[in-house]
Amino acid sequence: MASPLDQSPGPPRPAAVDASTLQGKVIFGYQGWFGCPGDGSPVGEWRHWFRNNSPTAVNLTVDLWPDTSELGQGEVCPTTMTLPDGSELMAYSAYNEMTVMRHLEWMEQYGIDGIALQRFVGEIQDPRFFDFRNKVAQSVRSGAEAHGRVFYIEYDVSGYDASRARKPLLAAIKEDWEFLVRDLGVTDSPRYVREDGLPVVEIWGLGIVGSSGASVAEAKAVIDYFHQDGDPMYRAWVIGGVGSGWRTGTDDASSGADWDDVYRSFDAINPWSVGRYADEGADDYRDRVIVPDLAETQQLSLGYMPTVFPGFSWRNLRPEAPSNQIPRLCGQFYWHQVYNAIGAGAKTLFVAMYDEVDEGTAMFKLAPTANDVPAQANLLPLNIDGWNLPSDWYLRLGGETGRMLRGETALTRSMPTECGPRVVVAPPSGPKGTLFAVQWSGFSP
Fold first, then answer.
1. pLDDT tens digits, 88-120
2. 145: left (phi > 0), else alpha (psi -120 to 50), else beta?
3. Is the overall model pTM greater than 0.70, yes or no?
4. Which residues contact 197 (CB under 8 A, 6 or more apart)?
5. What pLDDT, in 10s, does the model give residues 377-418?
6. Are the CB atoms for 61 and 358 separated by under 8 Å?
7. SS3 of the chain
8. Phi/psi at 218 (nearest 5 deg)?
9. Contact 360, 63 (CB under 8 A)
10. What is the rounded distance in angstroms from the CA atom of residue 334 to the CA atom of residue 338?
């Protein structure tokens, strides 16, 4: 049996991705929120890597570590931690255009369609983070145009509370979107994805229990702005990033007739499923959520974009949580979900996430073995579940996902490349625990 280390990436898509529709696309969420001292940004500190602006093991807030071996000297940020061979552990900053461009280049190389660029409503009201996010948006646009990928803006309203917000929700989103369209010209890009002739925008968090304090009235006002109340030049096709229980008003979704109307006023539904189940619960989620969701959205002529994710771990972010909470199983958990969603009839998929090392859902190149992470840190290498994998394993699976979604390869429950023999790997230290529903952690500048 061939080892996965001997396999090469699948063939890339032969031409630029069609930006006129989301149909047949696999979209990866992209945080773009990582920063470090000396990155040239007005923030200029460790963001989303460490607490207390201190790059030490005790201050880690991520559970995975990126493979930074391809990054140039001007792209890396040294930490105080060292690898087993004595070399410095390196991080990166999303403020660096070269790094973001490289992430889009990887997408082209592996045949991944594009990204939903996260933009946090609470964060962008701080001028420092507004500048940071604008630079990331410009880099994403440049990367998408250079490498034939597509992108769209996803507003994250997690943590929003009208009583503490600097601006009302509608005002904050309206002001920012009009700036992006008018001043940055993001929708002028031929790589900005559209549906029904309109630019796509996603609003994530409305109605998700424990995520956002936005009211029904605030939610309706935001949707109406994009659909009808705003100037025609700012109109958009709106995806709702909602709770997995949106259809029934149960579990993680706010309930009531008013919220039912909100959910059904979106142009498409993207239910959040991260942390809702592990591998043994994937079939139940398909039967209980995806299949009836598809039936209802088809009846209502709404788009539907189920979320799939590779695994989950956020012990460094939340020390009370178990490490390696939802094991990846060499990608078998991810592929199980992909097979279920496509088999149920989904035409578009949302993958959480491209770069989310904080919550252990990252799909880009990752540290593969214990030799690639510091011994003193509780970080999970890719082989933590017992399979030796290359750093780009999940990029390969991401490309294969799109090919299967579009019917370029057969729908199959078996992964396109076998994992190879399993070996015993020492488990990470930390508490054990049972599965619990995971809420988005959001961002507080």
1. 999 999 999 999 999 999 999 999 999 999 999
2. alpha
3. yes
4. none
5. 999 999 999 999 999 999 999 999 999 999 999 999 999 988
6. yes
7. CCCHHHCCCCCCCCCCCCCCCCCCCEEEEECCCCECCCCCCCCCCCECCECCCCCCHHHECCCCCECCCCCCHHHEEEEEEECCCCCEEEEECCCCHHHHHHHHHHHHHHCCCEEEEEEECCCCCCHHHHHHHHHHHHHHHHHHHHHCCEEEEEEECCCCCCCCCCCCHHHHHHHHHHHHHHHHCHHHCCCECEECCEEEEEEECCCECCCCCCCHHHHHHHHHHHHHHCCHHHCCEEEEEEECCCCCCCCCECCCHHHHHHHCCCCEEEEECCCCCCHHHHHHHHHHHHHHHHHHHHHCCCEECCEECCCECCCCCCCCCCCCCECCHHHHHHHHHHHHHHHHCCCCEEECCCCCCCCCCCCCCECCCHHHCCCCCCCCCHHHHCECCCCCHHHHHHHHHHHHHCCCCCCCCCCCCCCCCECCCCCCCCCCCCCCCCCCCCCCC
8. -65, -40
9. yes
10. 6
